[in-house]
Write a structure and sequence with these properties.
The chain is an alpha+beta fold. The chain has a domain of about 220 residues: 4-Layer Sandwich (CNF1/YfiH-like putative cysteine hydrolases). The chain is built from 7 helices and 18 strands. The strands form 5 sheets. The protein has a 6-stranded mixed β-sheet with strand order 1-2-3-18-11-6.
Length: about 350
């Protein structure tokens, strides 16, 4: 147990395409520093949200997180990647030493890493899962609500942030380094999906749209689905601007439950008349902390999933950089985690 520590591309999105390659909002924080002050944000816990409900599989130094309930399905392969055990050399800094060099399992192509290293890391990752013979289907993620359904392996990666299939032998994947990876399983129809949910995707209800696609394509009933939400940046660390809070409040009646303090920036400042600032000029509103996993769990419940079928890791990628990559903490030098799901071929 882990201790707490094809079909052609289709379905164009109406969402804007973001030009930056950055997967996460806000400025990155130097890896040698931590926030001088953390709010007393009380993180709500649900019965399925404990890291103790997850297991860890290790093979040749490659560590993979899995959900026991999903492991009980004999035809299913799934896993959430971690940081240790790869061949990529990542140079960073620590508070103790000027320079820190480590070998990591970077599963995403990056400027600081070679293509050969990433391919070898992916080979090790799939081997540790017992899915070495599966073609890996990755996406060109751009924080959209685009969902692809694959019947065969595409000639090249499609643009989108979620994929689904009911075909054996395909390994669906999403890459993250703070965003929420979500794996969906329909045990009755033998269909699966992989979802990448950052704040933009969450705002566009991408996980609900993935479920809708499974309903249309595979006749999935939401009540039959199992969902696993992997390690992601927690509400303890995910600081966003008040404009993000405003956007969520405009679309979700229960959005206030996903923030430590819901502020939109329009609230009056009662101390403005005691400051040196001219009347009508208020200090900028403070930022807020968003719990992305809680927001996506709420959407899963709204879509019709049973609470007992939703499994949420409470491991924070920003807090646990010994186990995960965090773009917020490491910036462009961060690696990428990968979460995968597929259907085994019948023997």
């Amino acid at each position: 147990m882990l201790r707490p520590i094809g079909r052609r591309c289709q379905f164009r999105s109406s969402a804007p395409v973001f030009s930056s390659d950055c997967d996460y909002t806000g400025s990155s924080v130097a890896p040698t520093k931590t926030s001088p002050r953390k709010r007393g944000f009380r993180k709500p816990r649900c019965p399925a949200a404990s890291a103790n409900a997850w297991t860890e599989r290790t093979s040749n130094g490659t560590r993979i997180l899995q959900v026991p309930a999903l492991n009980k399905i004999p035809w299913l392969v799934h896993g959430f990647g971690t940081r240790p055990g790869g061949v990529s050399t990542l140079v960073g800094h620590s508070a103790v030493t000027q320079e820190k060099v480590e070998q990591v399992l970077n599963l995403g192509f990056a400027e600081w890493d070679s293509r050969e290293n990433v391919l070898e890391n992916r080979r090790r990752f799939q081997s540790a899962l017992g899915a070495g013979g599966f073609p890996l289907i990755s996406l060109k993620q751009f924080h959209s609500d685009v969902v692809h359904v694959f019947e065969t392996t595409p000639a090249e990666p499609c643009r989108g942030d979620a994929s689904a299939t009911n075909q054996p032998g395909l390994l669906l994947s999403v890459q993250t380094a703070d965003c929420v990876p979500i794996l969906l399983v329909d045990p009755r129809k033998r269909a699966v999906a992989a979802v990448h949910a950052g704040w933009r995707g969450t705002l566009q209800r991408i996980v609900m749209k993935a479920i809708g696609k499974m309903q249309m394509e595979f006749a999935t009933k939401p009540g039959d689905l199992l969902a696993a939400l992997g390690p992601a940046i927690g509400g303890c660390c995910y600081e966003v601007g008040t404009e993000v809070a405003s956007a969520f409040l405009a679309r979700f009646p229960n959005a206030a439950e996903w923030f430590d303090e819901l502020r939109t920036g329009d609230e009056p400042n009662p101390l403005q008349w005691l400051s040196m600032m001219p009347p009508g000029h208020q200090p900028p509103a403070k930022s807020v902390y968003l719990d992305l996993r809680k927001a996506n769990r709420a959407q899963l419940l709204d879509a019709g999933l049973s609470a007992k079928n939703i499994f949420v890791s409470d491991l924070c990628t920003a807090c646990r950089r010994d186990l995960f990559f965090s773009y917020r903490k490491e910036g462009p030098q961060s690696g990428r985690l990968m979460s995968v799901i597929g259907i085994r071929r019948a023997p």
